[in-house]
Amino acid sequence: MLAKRIAIAFGIAVIFPMLVHYGVSMFVPRPRWEPPPPAAPGESRDERNARLAEQRSLQAEHRAEEKRFERHLFAFAVPLGIAAILVGAFLRLPAIGSGLMFGGILSVCDGYANYWGELADALKFASLLAAFVVLVVVGWRRLERPGPPG
User: Fold this and answer.
1) Which candidate, 11, 75, 95, 114, has a CA 20 to 30 Å from the CA of 52?
2) pLDDT digits 0-9 by tens, 88-147
3) Buried b vs exposed e over 17-48: b needs ≥16 C-beta within 10 Å?
């Protein structure tokens, strides 16, 4: 029975962040990079410069689309992850609750991992503080087991 509980918790922990990630991808597709064609034989300097300028433009456009996806992923993965942690802490079914808590933590990590470089320090601090406070409060209020005095 314990193995089944662990399997359920592990499955939820792995699938929840993937569900969030690919749910966001359905509405804001992650851009795919298509490499530009190689230089043509006998290409003139002007043609080469034009091709390189076009490549830079395509790279900038691709990066802007990547940032858009990463921003949306962060905006959904972090709050949904924190919500999963809270819901998991209050569920009386240990396997599902544990799975949601681990999945929530992994979802928060996914949101940060993809957008960390773009976040302002103040937003990094505030959002990490919120996640930290949720974890501490959940641990203190929901998981603490009073022991015998002294």
Assistant:
1) 114
2) 988 888 899 999 999 999 999 999 998 888 889 998 899 889 888 988 888 887 666 555
3) beebbeebeeebebeeeeeeeeeeeeeeeeee
In a domain, 148, yes or no: no
The domain tally of the chain equals: 1
Residue 114, domain member (yes or no): yes
> Would you say residue 150 lies in a domain?
no
- Cβ atoms 24, 69 nearer than 8 A: yes
CA angle 103, 109, 114 (to 5 degrees): 130
CA separation for the pair 130, 111 (Å, rounded): 14
Two structure tokens written together for 39: 């230089």
- Residue 24, H or E segment: helix 2-27
147 domain residue, yes or no:
no
**Rounded CA separation 106/138 (Å):** 17
Domain that holds residue 74: 2-142
